[in-house]
Specification:
Keywords: Membrane, Transmembrane, Transmembrane helix. It contains 3 helices and no strands. By secondary structure, the protein is mainly alpha-helical. The radius of gyration is 14 Å and the shape is elongated.
Length: 74
């Protein structure tokens, strides 16, 4: 898997797990699925940063997102 794709998928998973975790906690349930999703997304982000030579800066993330979306939608 391409490190850019792993970074973007990981960030999307992390962002989507947060509302799920809040909903589970507000209902009084254990956020098991949200926690697993958060861990998986975090692992993908860490793998992408470790795999790409030089890593990523915070300023590269939006450009990387646009590049990945454009690559798979075009």
């Amino acid at each position: 898997m391409d490190p850019d794709l792993a970074l973007i998928l990981g960030l999307v998973l992390v962002v989507l797990s947060i509302p799920s975790m809040v909903a589970a906690l507000s209902d009084g349930h254990a956020p098991r699925v949200a926690a697993i999703t958060l861990i998986a997304g975090g692992a993908m982000v860490v793998w992408a940063i470790a795999t790409k030579p030089g890593g990523y800066t915070i300023h590269e993330v939006p450009d990387t997102f646009i590049k990945v979306v454009g690559r798979y939608l075009a």
